[in-house]
Amino acid sequence: MDKLKELIVKRLPKFFAGNLFGTAIDTLVLWLFSHLVFHDYVGQVIVSPIISFECAVMANFVFSYYVTWKDRISQLSSRSFFRHYLGYNASCTGTFLLKMGILMLIQWLTKWDVVICNLLALCVSGVVNFLMDNFVVFKKKAEEV
Known about the structure:
By secondary structure, this protein is mainly α. It has one domain. Helix content is 83%, strand content 0%. The protein is built from four helices and no strands. The protein is elongated, with a radius of gyration of 16 Å.
């Protein structure tokens, strides 16, 4: 129970703050590309979210690496940063595919603006992303468990 309490009390607020920042970046970039750059369905609902996703991933990772999960990083180095980033980006890509499926389903069912559908989809995929960060990307070393 202490591990669950530590996870919720210590990590979740930091994760939420970092992802709130990433969501703001994701939403801004998505809005810019879907309203000012692309005017067709593929550009607005597929290409724009991919671009906004990569921008948000980088922002979220930097926050996660240096703030949320910093005590699980044994050595701060370029090698460590990029090794964790590869795992983080792979994890986020999986949750991105989940988010895209949810976004497209909501948009198809409701015909709401892609930005609203994206925010709803981010709520679901955010939970999955937190669990992946905790148990895969920034997992505790065997001797810490």
